[in-house]
Write a structure and sequence with these properties.
binds D-serine; 2 domains; globular; 4-stranded antiparallel sheet; 7-stranded mixed sheet; alpha/beta
Length: 417
């Protein structure tokens, strides 16, 4: 087991850690933004680096004793620049949300106009949701997917850009299943004199593994999280052109953050090395192949896939054709009982509220890390359909849970544990 078991004297937290280890490894983890990071990454995140303060950047710190930390952060920076072909990298953002806010602070003034994909059409809170600081500090204009094909409409993006003359256009998604071509956003940004930021939080691992188009050659700034498809520790990162390097670094520290989490940065460095391997390339391709197989199998079971399918690691499933009464909220709760973890999700123009929803979002990064392939995706689709169809029958839901546990035992997330 990758966790020591005797470090909390009263064992209360240790017991809960063990419970969570059991939950993660005996159930199917289908949340599209989660993954199983490696024991090497967890070792770094649980290391003595958590004791160290290191405000500043390698070679320019405000505290002493940062010789080792400087080496670690410099390695992380070089590895991630090489991985994505970027001029500049800042590995200090504590999260993807922080990375986005730092990028805005670096390039925008309060009140500036920005285009971003609407949250309920697959964007992110930090792409201008009115309840988020991004929506309060900046004048976000949302673009949406087209009702007919449920894909981003580049004509609409261009029309909005010409009408509102934004200072920045944000591409990138959290629940959009289709491929985004990064080049047309650049062309529109150039046409109206806007910066182009790409939020690759969900897609970073697929991009690193060559399974999704790389926005780095096109965008001014690319932000991402390190813990989703990239399979690293929980955290954020910003890549940029050399032109914006100083502004980005200043926005992260002292702009938004204080002391960096160097234990997490060490974990990021390890994950960046892992993501540069041939094995990771094969992994990224398999994540996409598995998502496609799972989407097809769900469709065969009577579910509707938003946009008709997927080109990436996730799909958004409209539950209504399967069962008009079934909400995303109920599906999430029933599947939890069956050991299948996913999240309720709005579908475009959902008639139900975001707390109830008509859909669920499903992703394949975690099960692919476990070594599952297309045949197991057929099995997972069948298990989901059975649990939802028989949701009022406790014995049938329990039977699904037992099959889920058997499947996970055959594909352990941490074989050495
Ligand atoms: N919470 C993340 C997700 O699940 O997509 C986005 O921040």
């Amino acid at each position: 087991m990758p966790f020591p078991s005797d470090t909390d004297p009263d064992l209360e937290i240790e017991r809960l850690l063990a419970d969570e280890f059991t939950r993660q490894t005996t159930g199917l983890q289908l949340i599209a933004s989660e993954n199983f990071t490696s024991p090497a990454v967890m070792h770094a995140v649980g290391s003595v680096l958590t004791n160290k303060y290191s405000e500043g950047y390698p070679g320019k710190r405000y505290y002493g004793g940062n010789q080792v930390v400087d080496s670690i952060e410099a390695i992380a920076i070089e590895r991630v620049k090489s991985l994505f072909g970027a001029d500049h990298a800042n590995v200090q953002p504590h999260s993807g949300a922080n990375a986005n806010m730092c990028a805005y602070q670096a390039l925008l003034n309060a009140g500036d106009t920005v285009l971003g994909l609407s949250l309920d059409h697959g964007g992110h809170l930090t792409h201008g949701s009115p309840v988020n600081a991004s929506g309060k500090l900046y004048n976000f204009i949302p673009y949406k997917v087209t009702p007919g094909d449920e894909r981003i409409d580049m004509d609409q993006v261009r029309d909005l850009a010409l009408k509102h003359r934004p200072r920045m256009i944000v591409a990138g998604t959290t629940s959009y299943p289709r491929r985004i071509d990064p080049a047309p956003f650049r062309a529109i940004a150039d046409e109206v004199g806007a910066y182009y930021m790409y939020d690759a939080a969900h897609l970073a691992g697929l991009i690193a593994g060559g399974a999704y188009p790389n926005p780095v050659p096109h965008a001014d700034v690319v932000t991402f999280t390190t813990h989703k498809t990239l399979r690293g520790p929980r955290g954020g990162c910003i890549l940029s052109t050399s032109e914006h390097a100083a502004a980005i670094d200043k926005a992260v520290f002292p702009g938004w953050q204080g002391g960096p989490l160097e234990h997490v940065i060490a974990g990021k460095a390890i994950a960046f090395r892992e993501a540069a391997s041939d094995a990771f390339k094969a992994y990224a391709q398999q994540v996409v192949a598995n998502a496609s197989a799972l989407a097809n199998a769900l469709a065969r079971n009577g579910f509707r896939l938003v946009s008709g399918g997927t080109d990436c690691h996730l799909m958004v499933v409209d539950l209504r054709p399967f069962d008009a009464e079934l909400t995303g909220k109920e599906a999430q709760a029933v599947l939890d009982l069956a050991g299948i973890t996913l999240n309720k999700n709005t579908i475009p123009d959902d008639p139900r509220s975001p707390f109830v929803t008509s859909g669920v979002r499903i992703g394949t990064p975690s099960v692919t890390t476990q070594g599952m392939k297309e045949p197991q995706m057929d099995t997972i689709a069948d298990l989901i359909a059975r649990a939802l169809r028989d949701r009022t029958d406790d014995a049938k839901v329990a039977a699904v849970k037992a099959e889920v546990a058997a499947l996970c035992a055959a594909f352990p997330a941490y074989p050495a544990a």
